[in-house]
Amino acid sequence: MRIFAVSGYSGTGKTTLIVALIDGLKKRGHTVSTVKSSMEDSMPPENSDTWKHLKAGVEMSILQGPSSTTIRFKERISLSKTLQVYDSDFLLVEGMKGLAIPRFWCVGEGALEDVPPPGTVAMVAWKESATTAKEVDVPVLLPDDVESLVKIVEREAIDVSDLVL
Fold first, then answer.
1. Is residue 3 over pLDDT 90?
2. 34 SS3 class
3. What is the pLDDT of residue 10?
4. For the segment 84-108, what is each residue's pLDDT rounded down to a tens digit?
5. Which ranges in the chain belong to alpha helices (H)?
6. CATH class of 2-41+76-162
7. What gap in Å lies between CA 68 and CA 82, rounded to an integer?
8. How large a percentage of the chain has pLDDT more than 90?
9. How many whole angstroms separate alpha carbon 102 and alpha carbon 122?
10. For residue 64, what are the β-bridge partners?
């Protein structure tokens, strides 16, 4: 499995870009999984069975529905442990600015003066004018050029075994 990230500040189009990359990679015959880093904890609905299990003190609760499985851990687990459950060609990470992996840095309405984090292979600007706002050390692409973006992911994604956590 190979890993690639899409990062940027809130509201810069990260999720929109991830969805486009998923579609583009799948059209090229790849399987894709995602992991999203969030500033908010997501709990099951209050008083649901899973909520009651977690409140009772289980370390992990698995909910098997008719067509899906949801796994919830009592505490945040490390990315290296999380990677053990994935089995796909590509793992796209949304967020995790501090992780040193290849990434697109979304600029949104912001200016290109924002310094992208280490590992950035291209910036994705959501307005044509932003692509000429400032010279940066990485290519600046528009999000509608999905074919070019997917090719970059295929070329730049690293094997998870090469990931230094």
1. yes
2. strand
3. 84
4. 777 899 999 998 888 889 999 988 7
5. 14-27, 49-56, 79-82, 146-156
6. alpha beta
7. 18
8. 32
9. 9
10. 69
Domain map of the chain by residue range?
Answer: 2-41+76-162
Which residue shows structure tokens 């501090």?
98
pLDDT computed for residue 124 by the predictor = 81
Residue 64 burial by Cβ neighbours in a 10 Å radius (0-12, 13-18, 19+) = exposed
- How does pLDDT run across 4-49, given as a tens digit for each residue? 999 988 888 899 999 999 999 999 999 999 988 766 667 777 888 8
- Give 155-159's long-range contacts (Cβ < 8 A, gap of 24+): 156/4, 156/102, 156/121, 157/2, 157/3, 157/4, 157/90, 157/102, 158/2, 158/3, 158/4, 158/101, 158/102, 159/1, 159/2, 159/3
Strand ranges for 44-160 from DSSP E: 60-64, 69-73, 90-94, 103-108, 120-125, 140-141, 158-159
Distance (Å, whole) CA 11 – CA 31 = 27
Strand-strand pairing, 2-8 and 90-94 = parallel
Residue 23 φ then ψ, to 5°: -60, -45
Structure tokens at 72: 């919830």
